[in-house]
Structure formats: C-alpha cells, structure tokens
Amino acid sequence: MAKPLRPQFVLFGDSITQQSFEEGGWGAALAALYARQADVILRAYGGYNTSWALFLLDKIFPKLSSPPDVVTVCFGANDAALPVPDGEKFHVPVPQYKANLHQIVSHIKSNSETTVVVLITPPPVGDEAWIDFGRANFGKQPEALPDRTNEVTKLYAQACKEVAKEADVPVIDLWSVFQQTQNWRQAYLWSVQNDPKE
C-alpha cells in the first residue's frame, strides 16, 4: 500500500477524544494547527474502556496498512468507574487497565517502530458536578453512590504514567495539569451548569 501523501495523526480514545472535534475541542484545534500539513483522523468511541478498545485494534490499526505517524491513546475515564451498579459494566481493575494499555501500545508499535504513541491520562473528575449530572440526567437520589470519583481516577492516571514509562512512550498527564489551575473544575470540565444543550 502506498504511503499517504501527508503524515497521519490518529486520535484513539473514549468520549473525551470523540468530543474533541466539537466546537473548541482539542482535536479540532489540532486539525486546524496542522491544516495542509497532516491528516488528523478521529477514531474514538464514547463509553468504551480499554478492554473494549482491544477488540478495535485490528480494525483501526490493521497489519497491512500504512501505519500512522502519531497515535494518541486516551482511555481510563470509563475504566476508573467504580464497581457499583451504575459503573460496574465500565469498571476495569487497575492491573488489567495497565495490561490493556500495554497491549494497545504494543499492537500499534508492531506495525511500525517509527509510529509515535502518546498516552493521555484520564482527566480529573469534578466530584460534585458528577453527582449533579447524575441527579439532573438520571434522577439519582443525593444518597446514591457516585460511580466516579477524582480520588479513584488519580490511581488510573498514575497507572497510565507507569505504562508510559515502562513502554518508553511519552505521556500527557491531564489529571495533574488540569489541577494546577485554581478554578480547574469551571475552566476545564463539562458540567450541567455549562451544558450548551440546557
């Protein structure tokens, strides 16, 4: 297969990546930044965790195709769901999450050692906003257990960084970077209060 005329960047992830091509999103900004220089390709699946992502690898990164130049991998927000009724179908234990990330990186690298794989940690969770979201959209009672917390998501962000070090690939630590801004919840996170659909 002939090599594409321009470099290819593939954005692989869950809804955080899927929504990156919406107005003001980072994927759209990347495509604009590299307009006429590179093709930015979105391969993202809202609601997916790393275990489900494994089933997509051969379809998105087939062995015989021309490999992309850069791949971002952003999974973990769903893996970090707590094993409570609302989160158990998404939950992936930390050791399995790490093993899945290693398998994703290995698969991509098996097509081309020159492909740059960049891991992206899950971002922090605004605990109160997440509870408000559940209450507003699903009628959850205040006493209901949340299915995501920032404390647990931190463990997955750390695990993602560990995989990056072990696999010798770069990592973007969204979990830590976001929280360096004083009003990070309002500045960076989606909430019921700033939902444009409301």
UniProtKB/TrEMBL annotation:
Residues 11-189 form the SGNH hydrolase-type esterase domain. CDD domains: Isoamyl_acetate_hydrolase_like (cd01838). It comes from Sphagnum jensenii. InterPro entries: Iah1-like (IPR045136), SGNH_hydro (IPR013830), SGNH_hydro_sf (IPR036514). This is SGNH hydrolase-type esterase domain-containing protein. It holds the Pfam family Lipase_GDSL_2. It comes from the Eukaryota.
